[in-house]
Design goal:
This protein is mainly α. It has helices spanning 2-10, 13-22, 24-55, 58-78, 94-111, 113-140, 154-179, 181-184, 190-209, 213-240, 247-275, 277-288, 290-307. Helix 3 runs antiparallel to helix 4 (58-78). The termini are far apart.
């Protein structure tokens, strides 16, 4: 509960802050680079947590919590806020400003096709992902894990698969950033986002239908890579279409749409999974299916707008 409350306050705030400080055009490259550092940290953290967990299971959690507190204290001292202009105390009307900010976020979603469509995409992704993210491990446990280092313990396998998937995602992000940076930082990255969403669907379907362990693992890695590369491109694109005053609210609205989708989609698909695990996983893929088309539809709207004559 505490984690959820904290995430609600920080969701969208860090992206809005960095965009205000360095500008929307530079933010795309920073988000991609930040994702790469995040993946590198995930690899190091997974290894460290696994090692410390052998000593005491709560130990890595306590150290991680202390690290987050320390990070907050450090950032409070070193984060610049050169482009943040707080309202003078005598002019503050907190609740009215909260309402105005919320209305401006809703207005941005209503007036701008990109923001509106990304909210819908986030809702669909939430509907599809909750059951898949909870059931993929159940599916893997239906397979027989071969012995490695004298053991076939699923805990060892799941740790190794997490590390390998993160490493592959980091490699894919670095390669795209090296050989096709213009796609990652494009003003309208509809093509690459539609392609990544299609790969996500392919990974979900392949995993649901897989009858062999290694095919299921490959499908999982495909989906993980697609999700990892999508995240910073999606965030940068959204930031470019929201005004500074309502940016954090609009970003949070997109995140909340995903959460609403998870709450609405998780229980019925989970119930389906009790009778047919494959059926629930396939249903998740079917729900995800419209997302590539929604990205491409935005491209069509943009093209129509660009060639329309001025009034």
């Amino acid at each position: 509960m505490l984690w959820g409350v904290g995430y609600t306050f920080t969701s969208g705030a860090d992206q809005a802050w960095i965009t205000d400080e360095i500008g929307a055009e530079r933010a795309a490259g920073v988000f991609v680079r930040a994702q790469q550092f995040y993946l590198g940290g995930t690899i190091a953290g997974t290894v460290a947590a696994g090692t410390l967990g052998l000593v005491s299971l709560p130990l890595p959690m306590v150290i991680a919590g202390a690290g987050m507190i320390l990070l907050g204290l450090v950032l409070s001292a070193v984060m610049p806020e050169d482009n943040f202009h707080p309202t003078p105390k005598e002019d503050r009307e907190t609740f009215r400003q909260l309402a105005d900010t919320f209305r401006s976020g809703v207005d941005a979603a209503r007036r701008r096709p990109v923001v509106r469509t990304l909210v819908v995409i986030s809702l669909i992704a939430g509907l599809a992902s909750e059951a898949f993210d909870r059931l993929w491990s159940v599916k893997l446990l239906t397979f027989h894990f071969p012995a490695v280092l004298g053991t076939s313990d699923p805990a060892l396998w799941f740790t190794a698969l997490a590390l390998a998937g993160t490493l592959l995602s980091l490699t894919a992000s670095l390669l795209l950033n090296r050989f096709s940076p213009e796609r990652l930082q494009a003003s309208h990255p509809t093509g690459i986002l539609a392609t990544l969403a299609a790969l996500d669907v392919l990974g979900m379907f392949l995993f649901a239908l897989a009858g062999h362990l290694w095919l299921a693992i490959a499908a999982l890695w495909l989906r993980q890579i697609a999700d990892t590369v999508t995240s910073p491109i999606h965030s940068a694109w959204l930031n470019r279409h929201v005004d500074s005053g309502s940016r954090a609210t609009a970003l949070s609205m997109v995140s909340q749409a995903n959460a609403i989708g998870q709450v609405a989609g998780g229980p019925p698909l989970g119930a389906l999974g009790r009778t047919s695990l494959r059926g629930a996983l396939l249903a998740s893929g079917l729900i995800w299916l419209p997302i590539p088309a929604l990205y491409l539809r935005l491209k069509e709207v943009r093209s129509t707008t660009e060639v329309s004559p001025r009034p």
